Every structure is written in structure tokens, then in C-alpha cells.
């Protein structure tokens, strides 16, 4: 006779078999009670300015404070753009350094991701902060039209950024603005310029790029296991679609991005008061999908990043 006992205290699966007299007991630890969701907060971006919303952080001090509030609300990863004194997007490594240092000090373990994105920044400067060796950096693996410009990422430029990230052990977040970019990322892995498994982000809702259609997300997700085996993924939507993509990602086991970079409104009636307010809403939604906001250490384990205080090897 076998008696099955399920214990739920450990996140680690195991099934030792205990024997007592004629009885054998097989003990299973259940999977974690819920599946962690990494909440990324994109605090600033390139577009929103103080005239659009007073909540957007643009100085390093504001960015550190806003990130800290988002961290307390459940964000475990911060995506960072910096601005100059006139709120214009900047690639100044000194600004990235100040913000990164402040976040490391005030938000222990939070994953720091610098943007190599293009809006308003010279192409030859976009990777100019990578020597600071953040945990992660964004990497768009192709070009696409944005509403009023070409988001330009030629093949040799992408190869160059990928090589720096590989050599400096910076984990890229592959930005998928168009379906072709997922296959281009796989080619980078094949050529040894990126190390699998990758982390990808599907971005929907930018005019002229991927539209907000659930069928497209499902198609991309159906391709992912074969194209980029073991990849982890986040989905991001712009404007009012931010919340839509949060729901779609939570329901499919993906990770979520929120923040004022992509959306400055809380709802149709008012602006968001802070990045923290947007993060708190996603954190609260997690339970509806049997998820919970990932702690920094859970997020690091999911993404294969070193634990806090462990240097990279
Ligand atoms: Zn960005």
C-alpha cells in the first residue's frame, strides 16, 4: 500500500520514498504555490516630459527615488533611459552611472537594465554606457518604422552591441518590435554573438510596428520554444494597451512590464501618480492568475543572473 503525502513548504521538487513497516510513503513537494512574475518598471523612456506628466522622473535623483518606490511596490527589474538637463534623451555614461549606483544602494538585488534604444540618441553613442556592466541591456535585433521615424538597427550595429554584451557578460533583453527580430536573435545565437537562453520582450502598440493583437502574441509564443529554446519572455504594451499586455502575459506565464515610459495614464480619467502606482496595480493583478511578483532573487534565478553580491565569472 502506498500513501501519497503532499507537502507544500518547499519550492524544490523531490519525491523520496519512505517505508514504514509494510507501508511506503511517497512524499512530493508541490511546485511553488504560485509562479513568480518579474515586474519590469520602465521609469522614464525617451518621450514623456514634465509638461506631459509631473510624475515622470528625469533627474538622477528623481529616477532613483521613483525606482525605489516601484521596487517597494513589487518591481524587481528597472529599465533605464537618462535625460540631460533639458529633459532630452542622453547617452551620457556618467548619468547612467549615478542612477545605477543609487539604485544598487537603495534597492538591494534589483536587476538594472540600461537602454540602448534609439529615440533621440546618436547611433555611435547608444552602447556607450555598457562598460559600466549593468546586469542587462536592451537590444533590438532589427530595424522597424516607428510613428514618425525609422528605428534604425542595421545588422553590423546589432552585431557590435551583441558582441560587447557577450564579452562583458551583460544579459540582453531582446526587444521584439517586429516578428523578424525574433529570428534575427536566433541567428545571433547561432553565430555565437549571444549566449542562450535569451530573454525576449514582445512590444505591441507602437504605430507601424506590431499591433496589439492576441493572435500575434500567441503566434510568436508558439514559435519561441523552437526558435529560441528555453527563452524567457515579457510582453509590453504602449498607452492604454499596457494593461492589456499585462493581463495577456500573466495569463500565459510570461513576465510583465509597466511604467511611465510606455504609458503615463492610470486609466481613461487620470494620469498615473507615479511608476510605483502602476507597479502596484500589476503586483495586485498577479494573484488573479495564480502568480506573485518575483523577488529580486527569484527574478535573478529565472533570468540566470548572478545572485546579489556574487560577482560574475
Ligand atoms: Zn526603453
Summarize the structure.
By secondary structure, the chain is an alpha/beta fold. It is built from 8 helices and 17 strands. It is globular, with a radius of gyration of 20 Å.
Features:
single chain; 313 residues; alpha/beta; 2 domains; three-stranded mixed β-sheet; 8 helices; 31% helix; 22% strand; globular; disordered N terminus; binds zinc ion
Describe the SSE topology.
Elements: E1 2-7, E2 17-20, E3 23-29, E4 35-37, E5 39-42, H1 60-73, E6 77-80, E7 82-83, E8 89-90, H2 93-106, E9 111-114, E10 136-140, E11 144-145, E12 150-151, H3 155-167, E13 171-176, H4 180-190, E14 199-204, H5 214-227, E15 232-237, H6 241-251, E16 255-258, H7 275-285, E17 291-293, H8 296-303
Parallel strand pairs: 1-3, 4-17, 5-6, 5-16, 6-9, 9-10, 10-13, 13-14, 14-15, 15-16
Antiparallel strand pairs: 2-3, 7-8, 11-12
Bound molecules: zinc ion.
Zinc ion (ZN) binds near residues 79, 115 and 117.
Amino acid at each position: 500500500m502506498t500513501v501519497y503525502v503532499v507537502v507544500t513548504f518547499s519550492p524544490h521538487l523531490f519525491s523520496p520514498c519512505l517505508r514504514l513497516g509494510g507501508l511506503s510513503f511517497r512524499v512530493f513537494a508541490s511546485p511553488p504555490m504560485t509562479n513568480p512574475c518579474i515586474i519590469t518598471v520602465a521609469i522614464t523612456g525617451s518621450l514623456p516630459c514634465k509638461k506631459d506628466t509631473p510624475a515622470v522622473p528625469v533627474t538622477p535623483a528623481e529616477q532613483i527615488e521613483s525606482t525605489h518606490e516601484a521596487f517597494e511596490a513589487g518591481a524587481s527589474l528597472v529599465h533605464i533611459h537618462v535625460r540631460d538637463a533639458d529633459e532630452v534623451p542622453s547617452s551620457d555614461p556618467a548619468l547612467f552611472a549615478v542612477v545605477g549606483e543609487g539604485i544598487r544602494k537603495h534597492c538591494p538585488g534589483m536587476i538594472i537594465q540600461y537602454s540602448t534604444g534609439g529615440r533621440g540618441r546618436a547611433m555611435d553613442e547608444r552602447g556607450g554606457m555598457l562598460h559600466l556592466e549593468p546586469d542587462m541591456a536592451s537590444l533590438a535585433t532589427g530595424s522597424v518604422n516607428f510613428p514618425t521615424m525609422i528605428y534604425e538597427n542595421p545588422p553590423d550595429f546589432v552585431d557590435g552591441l551583441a558582441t560587447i554584451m557577450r564579452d562583458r557578460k551583460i544579459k540582453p533583453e531582446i526587444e521584439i518590435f517586429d516578428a523578424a527580430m525574433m529570428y534575427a536573435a536566433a541567428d545571433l545565437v547561432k553565430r555565437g554573438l549571444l549566449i542562450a537562453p535569451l530573454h525576449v520582450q514582445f512590444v505591441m502598440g507602437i504605430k507601424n510596428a506590431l499591433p496589439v493583437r492576441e493572435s500575434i502574441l500567441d503566434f510568436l509564443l508558439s514559435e519561441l520554444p523552437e526558435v529560441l529554446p528555453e527563452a524567457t519572455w515579457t510582453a509590453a504594451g504602449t498607452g492604454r494597451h499596457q494593461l492589456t499586455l499585462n493581463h495577456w502575459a500573466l495569463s500565459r506565464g510570461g513576465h510583465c512590464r509597466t511604467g511611465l515610459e510606455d504609458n503615463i495614464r492610470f486609466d481613461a480619467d487620470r494620469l498615473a501618480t507615479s511608476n510605483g502606482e502602476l507597479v502596484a496595480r500589476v503586483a495586485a493583478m498577479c494573484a488573479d492568475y495564480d502568480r506573485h511578483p518575483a523577488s529580486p532573487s527569484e527574478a535573478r534565478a529565472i533570468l540566470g543572473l548572478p545572485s546579489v553580491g556574487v560577482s560574475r565569472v
